[in-house]
Amino acid sequence: MAEEKIIIMNKEDIKNSLQTLAQQIIEESSPLIDLCLIGIRSRGVDLAKRINTIINSITKTSIPIGVIDTTLYRDDLSSSSYKPVLKKTEINFSVDDKNIVLVDDVLYTGRTIRAALDALTDIGRPKTIKLAVLIDRGHRELPICANYTGLTLKTIQNKSIKVTLEEVEKQDAVLLLPFPEKTRW
User: Fold this and answer.
1) Does residue 2 fall inside a structural domain?
2) Which of 11, 44, 149, 153 could form a disulfide linkage to 172, CB 3.0–4.6 angstroms apart?
3) Where are the alpha helices (DSSP H) in the chain?
4) How confident is the model at residue 184 (pLDDT cuts 50, 70, 90)?
5) Is 128 contained in some domain?
């Protein structure tokens, strides 16, 4: 019998978590003059845009948003059967001396964040880099932790977390699934 998916967060839960993340970022980053958000492809980009919208509605300040692709900085490509598609990094502002908040959907081993840090520091030298994630599921392989977390969820390694967003899948949800046979990062 196949295992069923379990809904961990629904649309309202995600909305509330992003509201909390935005509020924490505002409180720790005031004044917002040097604050920039950079979403990690793919779902981190949509989450960064949503956080920016919330920050703008609270502070009437629009924060610069960038997009970073970590593909070329991955240290696990050679061990994966997954064939990545290289996408564009889009950061149309200087990151030098800025307070950067990297945004991603799920923090797991830490390898994606390490790759994002490498990619970002190849572009420039930020004043600070912090991390905001919707879900922290544990099982770190590197000493990386989030500064802002929507939900900490202790999982077992034979489970997978999938974040679906309206912008892509037409539905906001966080799902706990059986681990797929073919892993993709």
Assistant:
1) no
2) 11
3) 11-29, 43-59, 111-123, 166-169
4) very low
5) yes
